[in-house]
Amino acid sequence: MAIRNSNFFLLILLLSSSINAFNLPELAPTEYCRFPLPGSKCKTEVEVYVNRLNSFESVLSYEYSYFPFCTVNDEPSPIENLGQVLIGERIQPSPYKFNFLINYNCRYVCTKKFTSTDANQQKMLKRLMKGIILNYQQHWILDNMPITLCYKNTENLEFCSRSFPIGCYVIDFFFKDETWKSTFGEDSSRIISAKIQVNSLNSNRCDRTTGPVMFQSTSKDIEIPFTYSVKFIKTNEIYWASRWDYILKSLPQTRIQWFSILNSLVVVLFLSGIVAIILLRTLCKDNPRYSRIVGTGSTKEQFGWKLIDGDVFRPPQKDILLSTLVGNGVQIAMTFLITLVFAALDFLSPDKPGALLTCLILCYVLLGTPAGYTSARLYKMFGGANWKKIALTTAITCPSLIFVILFVLNLVLWLNVSSATIPCTTFLALLALWFCISTPLVFIGAYLGFKRSVYKNPVPINQIRRQVPEQPFYTKPLLSILANGIFSFGCIMIQLFFILNSIWVHQYYHYFGFLLVVYIILIITCSETTIFLCYFHLCTEDYNWWWRSFLTSGSTAVYFFLYSGFYFATKLEISDGVSTFLYFGYTLMLTFILFLFTDIKTRNTFTTLPYSTQAMMRSVICYFVFILLNITVRVNSQICQGMSQYDQCSTNSACGCLHMMNAVDSGICGFLWVTCSELVPCTSGTNRCHEPGHICVHHPQCNSLPICYPVSMIDQRICPSITMTNTTITTTTQQWGKHYINAL
């Protein structure tokens, strides 16, 4: 075992040519100069900051001062944003300082002594030895950039890591010497890159003929001298605006990322096409099938979703819970969307650590209004009357569960003295954001949602619940839900691998533009699979679709959890129980968030959209329901939505709105002047027509009884469509001794 930090070479590249590039105000480059210049704001001293240490073999991260390194105690630490604190970054000043453009050779810092009789020193030495065995990595920062350790892999390609190990560990505790290569550049007094070469020399004079610092046991006194050297090299090949490129391009996943994303998009588009084709072909098959049933007058084979039109919009069980989950899902989905847009526009670039998580939290807090609005609209449609109750459950339920998981994990981190422990002040700040900003916004959204008129179902609900027939095994809820969830998971599986790498292997992920595309495709795929599953179950006369549609796309989270377990077993080298508990604890929290996100594709989530968009979507839904409820009628007819019986719906004044079966304010536009004595009543109980070319409607002239109306009387050639306006025109007809209001 040997410590590699005894003597390292810090080499900094500077570029000489000036550049003009777009930079956000907080990202303006820092100008350096060798000597102070009058009236100039350039800096002469270059400061190196140290960050937390983490390992690929443990989830626990530690502060730099946790290990026996050279530190400074009289300088304040830089201010960290909320995201940095939550991910465990602890940036501290270091004793490694030097002047710009001045080279240093073997500059002494300090010596750490470990005597065999001092219990505290032996404790620190054992801590250092354990850190070397677990391959803990140091993260140093210079000019807001990571100091990288670069070397060539087996394919002779340069790989640059933004961290470097404490030391080297082998089975026989012998030191294994390694050579590290570094590169540098300069651009008009701006630091372009910082690369490090680490060595272990048992001397404070940087004598390379001496052996490495080795310790196989704690029974002997050990001294570890720390020195460093600095070398500046000027180059015109690298520009300040692209100084991150050499780090991002050398990441191990970069070269396969393009192929992986392209492959993912092709698979997702192919899957979306298959789902759409299946849905369309299924509907097209039903059309001739039901037409044959009507034509033959057979009642024996009548089955499917047409028999449950009076139960399909029946409110689900635990409607307040469903409304709450849908509202929180909308909040999370909008949070992801806004954050991905900012990240794709490079506002959340790698040189702003913690900015991504900070943006996620702030967006989530500020989007409480859409969550409350969606929950209230859905809850009111289910018949709920207490808007304060739904607002409270939306604001408290899901965030409370995440908060409890986070608190338990934080307690484990605190017991293990990890730098990832969230301070009490940060917890108080999160609670303040939750209760002082997010919760009031949820109440505002719920209040606005309840002020809107309730959404009316296309058909009324039967008073007596219809018994669901026995279902075949392949339509069982659990099996069908899990079977459909795998399609949505296939959209994101490849991207999940790289995202998990960025979380647990500490690699950069910066392909947010592609991730935004995958986000959109995921929503489309979830919607299509949910529609297909709902239609499939409605055809088996099972009208319990609310929770099933909610859980269908939500089952994507189940596959995410299983994949995370596979990733843990095959990609990570974690073996201790604490790290395993933390890994699956954080995975459980991410699974719940993904579950809520993929569940926003429920029936009334469109209520969060602007009014014009709502009107358009309502029209689409009404026409879709109209096609489903009248698929037996093979005629070019038009729907009259939002009209009363007999309202004028065509430029032909002899045409009016005829309600279908028990429909409320919706029906078909048909020619009114028929002889009731020539019409056949609909079948009692089922309201079906067995006469070829007829459909069951209500006709006021025929005592408003369900009668089988000729299909030829509802053709648009007889009743052309009319342009609807906000003007109300009252006409009078005395055909049956009543006045009828005709809304145009």
TrEMBL record:
Instruction: Give membrane topology per the record.
Output: Multi-pass membrane protein
Is Cell inner membrane there in the keyword field?
no
* InterPro entries on file: EMP70
Q: Which UniProt keywords apply?
A: Membrane, Signal, Transmembrane, Transmembrane helix
Q: Name one GO biological process term.
A: protein localization to membrane
Q: Has UniProt tagged this entry with the keyword Zinc-finger?
A: no
Q: Tell me the compartments it is located in.
A: Membrane
Q: Where is the signal peptide?
A: 1-21
Transmembrane domains' residue ranges: 258-280, 320-343, 355-378, 390-415, 427-450, 481-505, 511-538, 550-569, 581-600, 620-637
Question: Can you supply one Gene Ontology CC term for this chain's record?
Answer: membrane
Highest taxon of source = Eukaryota
Q: Report the sequence similarity comment from the record.
A: Belongs to the nonaspanin (TM9SF) (TC 9.A.2) family.
Q: What is this protein called?
A: Transmembrane 9 superfamily member
Q: Organism source for this protein?
A: Rotaria sordida
